[in-house]
From TrEMBL:
Protein name: Pitrilysin
InterPro entries with a match to the protein in the record: Metalloenz_LuxS/M16, Peptidase_M16, Peptidase_M16_C, Peptidase_M16_M
Domain Peptidase M16 C-terminal: from-to ranges: 6-188
Species of origin: marine metagenome
Gene Ontology biological-process annotations: proteolysis
Keywords: Hydrolase, Metal-binding, Metalloprotease, Protease, Zinc
Organism ancestry: unclassified sequences, metagenomes, ecological metagenomes
Family according to the record: Belongs to the peptidase M16 family.
Pfam families the UniProt entry points to: Peptidase_M16_C (PF05193), Peptidase_M16_M (PF16187)
Listed GO MF terms: metal ion binding; metallopeptidase activity
Peptidase M16 middle/third domain location: 196-276
C-alpha cells in the first residue's frame, strides 16, 4: 500500500480520464440468447462509454539488457523442487505472428521428449527428469520464451553442464534452419484441437474472447489459438536468434542452495551471481 498512500480522489479521476476510453476496450458477450438480442444489450449498456481517442500505452521493449554473463538467481522453493528455468526476452511485436506461431513451433521442438531430443539426452546423462518450453507475448511490444528443466540431484550439482547442453541444442536448431514439416504438424494439430477440444463457457471464455479482440482480427479472435495461416521462416529464425546466453535470466531452484539475499516485497531469500570469463 506504500505506493498508493498519496493517491487521492483527483489522482483517480485523472487516471480514469486518461485511460478509460472506448477505443482502448474490447467487448465480448457469450450467452444462450440470440445475436440480435445481445447486440441490443451491447448498444444499450455500453454505447454511452466515451471515445476520447486515448493513445496506446507504450512499453519499453527491452526489460533485460544484453550482457556477456550468465545471470543466475538461486531460490529456495517452498515445495521440494529442483528446477532450472531459462527466460529469454523477445523485444518484438509478438502478436503479428499469430498466423505462423513460431513460438509454438520452437516450444514443441525444444520440449520434444522422443529419441534425439534434448530431454532424452539429459536423461541419459542422469541430469533431468522433465523439460518444457513455452513462448508468449507479455505486451503488444515484447514477449518472452522460457525453458523449464526438472533436475535430478546430479543435475543441480552440474547445472552448468545442463546449460551447456541446452545451448548446444539451440545452436543445432539455428544451423538446421526452418523445417516446413514442423509447421504442417502444428497446423494439423491445431485443426484437431479445434474440433475436439472443450469449447468453454461462462465468464472466463468471454474474457478470453475480449482479450483476443484487442490484438487479433475479429473474424478469428475466438479461435486464434487454433488458427494457422502460412509458414514464416523469418519469424522463426528471428525468435531463435534471441535464445542466447547474453539475453537470458537463469533461475535455479533447490532447497539446498545458499540464499543470503532478501527480496524487498515478499521477504523471499535468494542469491544472485553473474558468471563470466571462461565459464561463460
Amino acid at each position: 500500500m506504500e505506493t498508493l498512500e498519496k493517491v487521492d480522489r483527483q489522482v483517480l479521476l485523472d487516471f480514469h480520464k486518461k485511460y478509460y476510453s472506448a477505443n482502448q476496450m474490447a467487448l465480448a458477450l457469450l450467452s444462450k440468447y440470440s445475436i440480435p438480442e445481445m447486440e441490443e444489450w451491447a448498444t444499450t449498456y455500453f454505447s454511452a462509454i466515451e471515445n476520447s481517442q486515448a493513445p496506446d500505452i507504450d512499453y519499453p521493449p527491452v526489460y533485460l539488457s544484453e550482457k556477456e554473463a550468465i545471470r543466475l538467481i538461486g531460490v529456495k522453493p517452498i515445495k521440494d523442487k529442483k528446477e532450472l528455468a531459462l527466460e529469454f526476452p523477445l523485444p518484438i511485436e509478438y502478436y503479428q505472428y499469430y498466423a505462423s506461431k513460431p513460438e509454438k513451433i520452437l516450444g514443441s521442438i525444444i520440449g520434444h521428449e522422443g529419441k534425439g531430443s534434448l530431454l532424452s539426452f539429459l536423461k541419459e546423462k542422469g541430469l533431468a527428469t522433465g523439460l518444457g518450453a513455452n513462448g508468449a507475448p507479455d505486451t503488444p511490444d515484447y514477449g518472452s520464451l522460457g525453458i523449464r528443466i526438472s533436475l535430478t540431484e546430479k543435475g543441480v550439482q552440474q547445472y552448468r553442464d545442463v546449460l551447456k547442453y541446452c545451448f548446444s541444442y539451440l545452436d543445432m536448431l539455428k544451423q538446421e534452419g526452418y523445417q516446413n514439416y514442423l509447421f504442417d504438424e502444428q497446423k494439423t494439430m491445431g485443426k484437431l484441437e479445434e474440433v475436439y477440444s472443450d469449447k468453454g463457457e461462462g465468464a472466463w471464455t468471454a474474457i478470453s474472447f475480449a482479450n483476443n479482440l484487442a490484438f487479433y482480427p475479429m473474424e478469428i479472435a475466438h479461435r486464434v489459438e487454433y488458427y494457422y495461416g502460412e509458414p514464416n521462416p523469418d519469424a522463426y529464425m528471428l525468435l531463435l536468434s534471441y535464445l542466447r546466453p547474453d539475453n537470458m535470466l537463469c533461475v535455479l531452484s533447490d532447497s539446498g542452495l545458499e540464499t543470503p539475499e532478501e527480496e524487498f516485497w515478499y521477504k523471499s531469500n535468494y542469491s544472485y551471481e553473474e558468471i563470466t570469463g571462461t565459464a561463460y
